[in-house]
Amino acid sequence: MKIFRTLTALLFVFFTVSEARSDGWSSGDEMARAAGMLLESLEPEQRKAAQFPFEAAERANWSNLPILMVPPPGALLKDMNDAQRQATQALLRASMSSQGYAKFTGIMRLEDLLRELAQARLDGVPEGERNPFQTALVATRDSNNYAVAIFGEPGAARWGWKLAGHHAAANFTVSEGRIAFTPIFLGSSPRIVEAGPYAGMMAMPKEGDRGIALMNALNAAQKEKALVDEELAEGILSGPGRQNSLEGYEGLQASELDSGQKRLLRALVEEYVRNAEFDAADAQLAAIDAAGWDALWFSWRGPVAAEGRFFYRVHGPRVLIEYNRVNPNHDH
User: Confidence class of residue 4 from pLDDT cuts 50, 70 and 90?
Assistant: First the structure.
């Protein structure tokens, strides 16, 4: 249960399985080809570490904590050669849009910057006073400390894959030609690089801003309904052991929004959905359309300020999005 509890401080985006498409092209086919090429590139011991039965528990167990605390299942990028890493990146590109791929790989690269920042702080502490755990933790900050796992046989009726590590996890499942991309977790620290040659760069530039824009567009009565709590007691609300948080909807129903506000809500939702390749994303948006955009609910906790700690949720029959500004320069 300890591992499952680590999932509570996450951004979850749950999507139902998309419908199979009949236009002759599917990102599921592209994923299968890329996953097959990755498996072929691995040595026997690496393949043994990377491939699991489709029903394996490892397909559902994952965490955003550093691998020192919760090692992800699969073969680590750091143990691969360049050709194998290239094959892993090709699989990620086959599964995601350019938007999603840029976010995911940007977050991975931030690990190297985090290591530099943490090592600089550690160097300022006398060696005899250094916390052994913190020293070991700094060593794990590595853009290649991500593990890839494939479940089942790529191209089979049911198979899946995931790439997971600190601050990023992508999970994909293909079933009878239909694609699910759930859950996807993304987090950035630093949210904005503050100094050095990459000063000003962001891996997740829009997620927080989309929520603030929608909240600021509400009138006083709407904002009062959306604001569930003026204080943010904790971060992400959903997760294993917290199913009761999904028993009902909270906040402001989208049916009470005007056309301009609905446009901002759609932009927010698409910021997440369109991280997936276009056919899977289009099918998911069609599912939301079928359930009705008016069936969505928007809620907020904390101050409505970019420099504050806040949380928002979009919840409906076919989608759940949760975002947490942990602090002004760290978000999930």
Answer: very low
Q: What is the dihedral of CA 265, 182, 209, 318, to 10 degrees?
A: 10
**Residue 244 burial by CB count (10 A; 0-12/13-18/19+): exposed, middle or buried?**
exposed
- Cα distances (Å, whole numbers) of residue 249 to 183, 205, 245, 289, 293: 20, 27, 9, 18, 14
Please check the confidence at residue 120 and state whether its pLDDT lies above 90: no
Measured distance CA(76)–CA(55) in Å, rounded: 21
* Nearest-5° Cα angle at 155, 151 to 158: 55
Are 177 and 26 in contact, with CB atoms under 8 Å apart? yes
Render pLDDT for 245-296 as a digit per residue (tens, 0 to 9): 788 899 999 999 999 999 999 999 999 999 999 999 999 999 999 999 999 9
- Count the Cβ atoms, other than its own, within 10 Å of residue 238: 21
